[in-house]
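Researcher: I'm preparing a figure for a lab meeting and need a structural model of a single chain. I don't have an experimental structure, so a prediction will have to do for now. The sequence is pasted below. Please return the structure as tokens so I can convert it later.
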Amino acid sequence: MVEAIARKSDTDATRNIDELYEPTVDEISRQRFVSALRKHVLVDKAAEMQESFETVVKPAMLERNQEFPKDAVEVRNAMLTNNAFRVFSALRVNAQQMTWASVMDGVERVLPQMTDLAREMAARNPAGGSVKTDSRFHVPEYVAGIDQHHVPGSFSAELGPDDVAIGAICAFGTKVFSGALPHRKDNPGAVAETVANFLKIQYPQFKPRRVLDLGTGTGKNLAPYLDAYPGIECYGIDVAGPGLRYGHAQFEARGKPLFLSQQHARKTDFPDGFFDLIVSSFFFHEVPVSITKQILKENYRLLAPGGRLAHMELPPNCEVDPYYGFYLDWDGYYNHEPDYTDYRSQVPKQLCADAGFPVKSCWHKFIPNWSTCPPDQFEKIIKGDMPALAHGNGATWFIFGAEKPA
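Model: Understood. Here is the structure written out token by token.
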């Protein structure tokens, strides 16, 4: 009897929390519809909107102004009354909201079991990782005060002690979010895989011992570094507890030790020079620029001599044409991301230099998505022998970084 209990306990300790989620046939159909709708909006309706701009709106602007629109704001002001833009926007907002709604019922049915399993994994840590959250932690208003990305309650909502609900909703919702897009695969860690392979090609002698992921969420874009750099220690921080707890349970079951903690990126509890590599994925546009500047200064403190930054973000206005700038800025106006447009008006290399990094060490680059680009083409693009595909829908990422002097 004791043996049977032990075997059951060992099995439960390594059960993947994702396996508890079992959507019904109707829910799966709904999710597939939402994925297809998002593809229709982001591919077909986006193309129709751009065609309307090129054939109707821009000629009218040129006729009035005798010059091309100078920036994204001018394009937006001209497009606000355009029917193609209005249809695109209405459909996109609704598809965004439907993304999370399509997985909520399935999560709620098994939420008690998910919470219990996450709590158990946090106590056992079978893979050797850890998760630290604090019920007294103050989540900043720029996260807690708005439903970012239309996520109900934002990423930080806590429904009870040791809650994982929003973590689960985001984990499964993001599969719906990108499921039908042409340059996306069911690969939650695509950004980390891409950045890691870029670093290995660009800096072949660079062998980081510890990596820190800012705004890590569930750690999905942190775990791939374990495979890219065997022996590396992977740390992730976030102000939202539910994702950290859920992600810890996920990756412990997969045998991937992550050290996750609830912290502000602008002021962490790590010692000086603790990390060789600091990364993030779509993080900085979610925080005020004043906080971004503090975070990059903290990055400088945390890096060891010779350490590197490699942050994946949206391209700034200075790197795109006015129309694409307008297209990107849509999220800032309609996706509950109020700091989006302000961040995109900055120059990332200058932000790094202002934080203390030598100007010559600061860089930015468009790189292809590793999971959808053939390896030989990926290497040629990184080395500058081939141009990257246009940015958007997961085909190409924009990254920036810097190096701390050795």
